[in-house]
Design goal:
Elements (H helix, E strand, L loop, with lengths): L20 H8 L3 E6 L5 E2 L14 E6 L2 E10 L14 E8 L5 E6 L13 E9 L6 E8 L1
Antiparallel strand pairs: 1-2, 1-3, 4-5, 4-7, 5-6, 7-8
The chain binds zinc ion.
C-alpha cells in the first residue's frame, strides 16, 4: 500500500504516559477506537484522564464505525517538513466528525486528488494506512470520501 505523505516524516507514537495507546493499537488492527466514559457514556477526543461530562476518572475505550463527515478542511501548500518536495504539495487535511461517537472530531488527511473539490458535510470512511516496514510498526488513520 502506498502512503499518502512522503517518507521521512517523524513516526507518530503513543504518548509516554500511555494515555492514547489504545487508539494507536486499534489503528494497527484496522479499528477505530475512541475514549468513552464508563459512567456518563460521553465520548471523548482527544484522550483525557478525566471525563469532560461528569469528571469521572473511569474512562474506557470503545470501537466505533470507521466513518464520519467532513466538519472542516484545509489544502496545505506550505512544506511543513524538509521531506516535503514540490511534488508532494498540496495535500488535504480534514477535521472529521463522528456522529455515531458523540460528534467527536479527529484530524487526518483526505486521500485522492489533492486538488479535488472538498465539501463540508461529505461522508468519509477511514483508511488504515499501515507502516509495517519501520522499526516499530504504526498505522495512520486517513480518510476518503464515499
Ligand atoms: Zn463521564
Amino acid at each position: 500500500m502506498s502512503h499518502y505523505l512522503p517518507a521521512g516524516l517523524p513516526a507518530p507514537m503513543a504518548s509516554p504516559d500511555g494515555l492514547d495507546a489504545p487508539f494507536w493499537e486499534g489503528a494497527l488492527a484496522n479499528r477505530l477506537i475512541i475514549q468513552k466514559c464508563n459512567d456518563c457514556k460521553s465520548w471523548l477526543w482527544g484522550p483525557e484522564w478525566i471525563c469532560h461530562g461528569c469528571l469521572s476518572f473511569d474512562i474506557g475505550w470503545q470501537e466505533t464505525d470507521p466513518e464520519g463527515i467532513i466538519y472542516s478542511w484545509e489544502r496545505i501548500w506550505h512544506p511543513v517538513h524538509p521531506t516535503f518536495k514540490k511534488e508532494h504539495l498540496p495535500y488535504i487535511v480534514v477535521l472529521v466528525e463522528l456522529p455515531q461517537a458523540g460528534n467527536v472530531r479527529l484530524v487526518g488527511n483526505l486521500l485522492g486528488d489533492p486538488k479535488q473539490t472538498v465539501e463540508i458535510g461529505s461522508k468519509v470512511q477511514a483508511v488504515f494506512e499501515q507502516h509495517d516496514t519501520e522499526d516499530k510498526p504504526y498505522a495512520l488513520i486517513q480518510w476518503q470520501t464515499v
